Amino acid sequence: MASPNGSFFTTIITRNVCRDIRRQILLCRSLSSASSSEASASVEEQLSMPVNLSEDYGDSNKWDDLKTRIFSLRMPKRSATNVLERWVGEGRKIDISDLRSISKELRQSQRFKHALEISEWMVSHDEFEITDSDFAVRVDLMNKVFGIDAAERYFEALPSDIKTRETYTAILHCYAGSRLVDKAEALYNRMKEAKLDLTAVTYNELMTLYMSLGQLEKVPQVIEEMKSQNVALDLFTYHLWISSFAAALKIDEVQRILQEMSSCARSDASWKRYVELVNIYLASGHLVNSTQASLVESEKSISQREWITYDLLIILYGGLGNKDKLDQVWRSLRMTKQKMIGRNYASVISSYLLLDHLKEVREIIGQWKQSAATDFDIHICNRLKKAFTEIGMSEKAEALEAILSEQRCA
């Protein structure tokens, strides 16, 4: 889940509250109907399953840090809790910042069951000061390991003072991921009634949900709500707003938003790159306004709306300078096995080119030329060169020209 923005209200959990929450967690586990194989064992088995230390991480003397021991658990059924207890039993101390760091890496590695065990261990020990963010992470982990019903029960069972913006947004994230639009909207109304100090993150979750359901008309409504509540729009907010209009081929609206972004006092280097990339995309992709109620479908199952969403996601990560995510989305786009068009190549070439990753630009142009499904279009490349020149980046245009010459593109 996206990390909630803003400061966190630190809550010191008393012994009785910890005991109550632990019971609630166990109840959620026992009642959960999640399909995960990790959830199939009983609560007792998951909490106290013995670990074969020699099998999991060999002689413990070889391991001198907690993270290595936990990451050496090769099977999800092995207990991270046992590793923590053994560590403490050896007279070693555990810092909560270390637990948070290990949990984050486990989540990034999709080892959610072990991350959940660490979260449980944290809240069951009184010496740790647990923050709203810790509980928000736990809500998300409950959803990933045991399913949305368990996450919902856990959230509802939390004490009222722990139901803050962070934990509310966490369960909203779960609803959005499960496309439960009615529950998401009802929860948002509860958040407003509770007079929580909401940030762009909450509204972004709603807009992401509407985009996933194709309810494009609801995105501008959320933007208006944000502005009426004086909630600052972040880059991802603008991205969703632009994507909703681009997917509907309302290009005039896209250009109006780009002008607003350019004049925004909060804009930074990432915003500037994003605006430049969208402008280049519009110039090179030949997107035009459409008065049709529905978009033209491509030859197969993916719609023009979905293609544009892929393109703009590539542009978002290009604007953020996040090459790893850019690589990931490009791979996903190619794995759709749909017939790509020149506009798709234009979005990824311009993103890599703006970030000076010329090796990738060469590879993509080579792939495009060799594609049996999509004819290489030199005219799109020429429009890209022109667009870069018009925004004052003639060196990018020259780099692209040199690559085209190397590849003997006519």
Automatic annotation (TrEMBL):
A GO MF term: mRNA binding
PPR repeats: 164-198, 199-233
Claim: Flavoprotein is one of the keywords in the record: no
Pfam families noted in UniProt: PPR (PF01535), PPR_2 (PF13041)
One annotated Gene Ontology cellular component of this protein: mitochondrion
Alphabetical list of InterPro entries matching this protein: PPR_rpt, TPR-like_helical_dom_sf
Coiled-coil ranges (or none): none
Gene3D superfamilies cross-referenced by the UniProt entry: Tetratricopeptide repeat domain (1.25.40.10)
Keywords for this protein: Repeat
PANTHER family for the chain: OS04G0450200 PROTEIN (PTHR45717:SF4), OS12G0527900 PROTEIN (PTHR45717)
Family of this protein: Belongs to the PPR family. P subfamily.
Name the UniProt record assigns to this protein: Pentatricopeptide repeat-containing protein
Lineage: Eukaryota, Viridiplantae, Streptophyta, Embryophyta, Tracheophyta
